[in-house]
Design a protein that fits this description.
Number of domains: 2
Structural class: alpha+beta
Distance between the termini: 36 Å
CATH topology of the largest domain: FAD/NAD(P)-binding domain
Radius of gyration: 17 Å
Number of helices: 3
Oligomer: single chain
Shape: globular
Strand content: 5-15%
Strand order of the largest sheet: 3-4-5
Order of helices and strands: EEHEEEHH
Bound molecules: flavin-adenine dinucleotide
CATH class of the largest domain: Alpha Beta
Length: about 150
């Protein structure tokens, strides 16, 4: 899909975007989630192809596309926190924090967190207007840095 946009892409085919998730060389185009190579902080980390990043980037990209149409300021995407949680089947799960992947939880405790991630953190909003709008608000979409 990104091949249809006449703009620079990385080796995953993701469109290079500015801090507001705008594709700089094409007017009116924003890219997000798996389709965008976006800086998520000021120290050289980039969003990965993950739910964790796609959920928050989507809120910023949607907000900014609407903001540009309305002529109001766009908001720079930022996401300092980064965690991984690897399900290990009967052995539980491994939960790490930070880009250095510092181990914080293992076994059953990690597994409980994995289940919460899948059923709460990245779960789609209820099919209700207020819940859907809240989940699309960039100021409210979780950046896990607040938890650790
Ligand atoms: C098997 C698998 C397991 C994964 N497990 C994990 C995990 O455990 N943890 C994690 O963080 N991430 C995981 N990921 C990655 C995660 O799913 C993606 O990073 C995330 O879904 C990206 O979100 P997105 O909104 O950018 O794209 P998507 O979720 O892919 O959404 C894109 C949507 O656009 C639609 N679309 C495509 N082309 C068009 C078109 N031309 N017109 C209209 N609609 C179109 C597609 O049908 C799709 O619904 C996994 C991915 C896969 C494939």
């Amino acid at each position: 899909m990104t091949q249809q946009i006449p703009a620079e892409r990385d080796n995953f085919g993701r469109l290079l975007v500015d801090r507001d998730l705008r594709v700089p060389s094409v007017d009116g185009v924003f890219a997000t989630g798996d389709a965008a190579r976006a800086a998520c902080d000021d120290i050289g980390n980039y969003a990965l192809m993950s739910c964790q990043h796609a959920t928050r980037m989507g809120a910023f990209a949607g907000n900014n596309a609407a903001a540009e149409l309305l002529g109001v300021p766009t908001k720079p995407y930022h996401q300092k926190g980064y965690v991984t949680c690897l399900d290990l089947g009967e052995a539980g799960a491994l939960f790490t924090v930070g880009w250095e992947r510092q181990v914080k939880m293992v076994g059953d405790v990690g597994k409980k967190t994995k289940q919460e991630i899948n059923t709460v953190w990245i779960y789609p909003p209820r099919a209700e207007r207020a819940a859907a709008l809240a989940s699309a608000d960039p100021e409210r979409v979780t950046d896990v840095s607040g938890f650790f």
